[in-house]
Design a protein that fits this description.
The chain has twelve helices and twelve strands. With 341 residues, it is of the alpha/beta class. It is elongated, with a radius of gyration of 21 Å. It has two domains: 59 residues, DNA polymerase, domain 1 (Orthogonal Bundle), CATH 1.10.150.530; 270 residues, Aldolase class I (TIM Barrel, Alpha-Beta Barrel). Helix content is 33%, strand content 18%. Helix 1 packs across helix 2 and helix 5 crosses helix 6.
Amino acid sequence: MDEDKYLLGRTLAEIGEIVETLNLPKFTAKQIADWIYVKRVRTIDEMTNISIRNRDKLKKKFEVGLSAPLQTEVSEDGTQKFLFKTNKGKPIESVLIPDDDRLTLCVSSQVGCKMNCEFCMTGKMGFHDNLTALEILNQVYSVPNSENITNVVFMGMGEPLDNYENVMKSIELLAADYGLAWSPKRITVSTIGITPKLELFLEESKCHLAISLHSPMGVQRQTLMPIEKKYPIEGIIELLHKYDWSKQRRLSFEYIMFDGVNDALIYARELVKLLSGLVCRVNLIRFHSIPGSTLKTSSEETMIKFRDFLTSKGVICTIRTSRGEDISAACGMLSTEQQAK
């Protein structure tokens, strides 16, 4: 499909270029952006403060570009998982997580992933494509109840910093004053740590950051996450020490607990050493099993002991509530099934 015909995913300046090309009044660009990003229309015909004649001009070459999810699964706990298709027909997933007064959408940034982490279903798919800003934002605008989303986390399929330009453009559009005008505090980007792009992100963005850690020991981390060989966790930590984490931006570390692998207290001790001097929190995560993997999640008792040790050493630590396990909410499960079909 020709993505050049879609308006969603374009900045105000880019919409301005379209308006100029079509010989529409300059102020029409702001009107179009408002209809798309604030009023959330699905068609150009709904842009009623633009004349019919000018709407017809716009419709000849463009459309809004929203596409509804192809499939929805609902968990007993209220979590919803959505299957979308990209403009090239590839399946991707989003997960909507209600939690008291928060409604968090977990979005994908790639079709598949190059990183091939041992515990990740998306990595088993291999890499297929980067999502465009349109395809990222379509997840935000096309899920049910989208107007009530309070937070977006880039923790779905793919490595966000491996698709840096499109991820940053989608964040720009969420935060734009002509759009939703979101605070960066409402957006979290999760990464395994592609150091050059991470440094760029830290300079260009005030969004929250989550680092996928999963082991404080480099040799073991490499068995779980091959990227450790190229971008060691020690280098990532060294970079993070250059920034102030006590103010607007929050730093967290994601730590999936694997039974008999990384859940002994020796790892907790090494974690305390590794994170010394950083204002951060550690999120302990239960492992959602995936086909073909021998990894299993740690017991509740082991996770509590691990958490309590970190807390006793001054590290803020929580055990993340497991959500949507009955609908295979682990990223990649639904899209892998779709590809198999």
